[in-house]
Specification:
Length: 505
């Protein structure tokens, strides 16, 4: 690959190091400019545009972070790489949050230096060709049985709801960075689909994506599975084998259910992420690895940190950028689009015509609580397709009833003439929120959707506490006996907004 048209600005106050970086890049074919301070770098940035900015964190007249903030403020396109002192993990994380493409730990390893710069340059060259069209996020316009496209899994990141639009926008915004990303959401919401989308839209799309279920690996095999092993390292190791890090070299490593890792393995994972090096079992030397880390969890990792079940330093390293996927019960307006895509895939796999989802079936779906989210929805549709006769899909109503969603029912009503519309199902009213705990011997009425009812209670308590303290989150958290991180997590999960942001809770 030729880098002769790639311009790089190197900012470092040590002349010897600046010359070393310059010569290294010149040998690779880059056009290199240098500066020794924030002021000199700003002068260079005013004179011309660069593709890549490489800056030391500490400079005589300020911080390299100020240059990143300048780029962000001016909406410039330079990809920034920050060099920070060994062990300054907080600086690296802060730089990534400011929009840095990647970071390097000083003293800088020149091989790694070349790899990171090449990765940034390659991403700039490949970005136009690899950017997927917006149509990849949309459901098909008409039913039918065409061959499923190679990007079929991407189409499941669909839905007209505002929260899903925000998820798609966040993916598009952060995919090009090397910053670690933590995807949060309940089981079945599609966390791995988000990781796949991040990989496809990144400059690493041509590299491998390795997905790992951290909770499915026996504890005694974790180190060998992650870092590899040399022949004879343990009984049964008859040949050298690579681990997940080596397999994902040049691509993305997706660590699903990261909260299930034991503490001892968390420490080793943290070191591998910080140093970008792994030592296979039985090896004497470490191996450099170039991977982008995307992790996912259904757990409250902030609470696990407080309880001592998860390392705080690893949590902050993984949670540089956060993507939250709301449960399906909070975005039921996405049901029609999701059903259309899932039914098309089911029909493709079975070789049958796509069954039609009529208004009655849509109303029946709206009555299901779907605690398993999209995964449970797919299972429900699979069962219905197998049991239905004729072109129309029949959905069994929820056994215990359920809160039919108004958005879904209105869509069904619009698709059906008034004289064909079925009578509205009789659904028992949800028990009102309790104003106080029941007296001894009394009981709450049984809810029809336990999780939705509990969420409503929790939301009501949080809103009351926040309003009592003028939306001072620290004071409200202290009043409720929870941490600031926990109240922030709950506010995000329950869609509680500060009125000063212009959105009412």
């Amino acid at each position: 690959m030729s880098f002769e048209n790639t311009t790089v600005l190197v900012v470092d106050d040590e002349p010897d190091l600046r010359t070393l970086y310059e010569l290294t890049l010149l040998r690779e074919g880059y056009r290199v400019f240098t500066a020794g301070s924030v002021q000199e770098a700003r002068a260079q940035l005013q004179q011309r545009r660069f593709e890549i900015l490489i800056t030391d964190m500490r400079l005589p007249d300020g911080l390299g972070m100020e240059l990143l903030q300048d780029l962000r403020r001016q909406s410039r396109s330079e990809r920034a790489i920050v060099m920070t002192a060994y062990g300054s993990a907080d600086n690296a994380v802060a730089a990534l949050r400011e929009g840095a493409f990647d970071y390097l730990t000083k003293p800088v390893d020149l091989k790694q230096f070349r790899q990171v710069v090449a990765s940034a340059s390659q991403g700039l060259q490949d970005a136009p060709a690899q950017a997927p069209s917006p149509a990849a996020f949309q459901a098909p316009a008409q039913p039918g049985t065409p061959p499923l496209p190679q990007d079929a899994s991407q189409r499941e990141l669909i839905g007209p709801s505002l929260v899903m639009q925000q998820v798609r926008e966040r993916i598009a915004k952060v995919a090009g960075s090397m910053a670690p990303i933590l995807v949060r959401g309940e089981s079945g919401t599609g966390k791995e689909l988000v990781a796949q989308s991040l990989h496809r839209r990144s400059q690493r799309a041509s590299g491998p994506m390795v997905a790992v279920n951290c909770g499915a690996i026996p504890e005694n095999l974790l180190e060998a599975e992650f870092f590899g092993a040399r022949k004879g390292a343990y009984t049964g190791a008859n040949q050298d084998r690579d681990g997940f890090f080596q397999a994902a070299h040049g691509g993305t490593l997706f660590l699903d259910e990261i909260g299930e890792l034991p503490l001892a393995m968390q420490a080793k994972l943290l070191r591998a992420i910080q140093e970008r090096k792994v030592r296979p079992l039985g090896a004497q030397q470490e191996e450099a690895v170039d991977v982008r880390i995307v992790s996912a969890t259904h757990r409250d990792l902030a609470a696990d940190v407080q309880a001592g079940r998860f390392r705080q330093d690893l949590y902050y390293r993984l949670n540089v950028i956060d993507i939250f996927i709301p449960p399906l019960r909070e975005r039921r307006e996405d049901l029609p689009a999701l059903c259309e895509v899932l039914l098309e895939r089911i029909a493709h796999e079975s070789g049958q015509p796509v069954p039609q989802l009529g208004p009655e079936a849509l109303q029946a779906l709206a009555g299901h609580a779907l605690p398993g989210n999209v995964r449970e929805l797919e299972n429900l549709l699979l069962r219905s397709v197998a049991l239905s006769d004729g072109p129309f899909l029949h959905i069994e109503p929820a056994r215990s009833g359920g809160p039919a969603n108004a958005a879904v029912q209105s869509i069904a009503a619009e698709q059906t003439p008034a004289y064909l519309a079925p009578a509205a199902p009789r659904v028992a009213a949800e028990p009102p929120l309790p104003s106080a705990l029941p007296a001894h011997g009394e009981r709450f009425p049984l809810p029809q959707d336990l999780q939705a009812w509990l969420d409503a209670i929790e939301r009501d308590i949080l809103v009351r506490a926040l309003q009592e303290f003028g939306f001072n989150r620290t004071a409200a958290a202290n009043r409720l006996g929870i941490s600031l991180r926990q109240i922030r997590y709950r506010m995000e999960r329950l869609q509680i907004h500060d009125p000063s942001d212009g959105v009412q809770p």
